[in-house]
Write a structure and sequence with these properties.
It contains six helices and ten strands; from the N terminus they run E-E-E-H-E-H-E-H-E-H-H-E-H-E-E-E. The chain has about 230 residues and is of the alpha/beta class. It has one domain: Aldolase class I (TIM Barrel). Helix 1 links the parallel strand 3 and strand 4. It starts with 14 loop residues before the first strand and ends in a 17-residue tail after the last strand. The C terminus is likely disordered.
Amino acid sequence: MSDFEPVLEETVAVPNRAPHESWVKMGMWTIVDHVGQLAMAGAGKTDVCIFAPSLRALPPAYPIAMATLPVVDWNAELFRALSDMASARSRCYAAVLMIDPFTLWEDLADLLKDKGFAGVVNFPPASLVEGVQSAGSAGASNTLEIDRMKWFHDNGLGIVHTGSSRMEMADVNNRLADLLDGMIYFPPDALSRRLAARMDLEPLVDAGFFPASLWSLKPAPVSPAGEAFDGTAC
């Protein structure tokens, strides 16, 4: 059973922080892997897109669990995609592996700002990449990951945190509450969802607990035959 109860998007006012520190309502949140999808996902003034071009380097229709395995140089794929694109829409965040020891962080931050990105997301999260969630302690959130996210914030980029357990998200919320633009709940059972060029998130509400927007991956649509549809053709 999920730690959070989903609420239909049209019935919930989901807050978020704008660059001038006021709170604004946010529209749909979507993970996309191509520049073309990036443009479509960010069409609404309040819509948010998470740009994860590294997903397209993974075998199509495989489970998202592939993103947590060392089969692709996640941040190198992001660098290549950023170099090939003109600019991002104002509410786009880049999916970054925060615990990569080989990334040229200053170059990445400068490139993201040059392309107009609003900020970064720790996706895939360290708690799934390293399996630290199984430790079952408040230290489930990776310190290196959090420190890197603070660094991005200090360098002028917004931050959205992805967590795989309520304990981890509560810990990060306590440590980054005033800095977060949003949070994404990505439980281990979401890893079975198939990769797709576009994956929509749904808003969750946990009154009085998370000050930032809280989102989770929507279940994959089910075809008439009863099988999950990966949305690749969308």
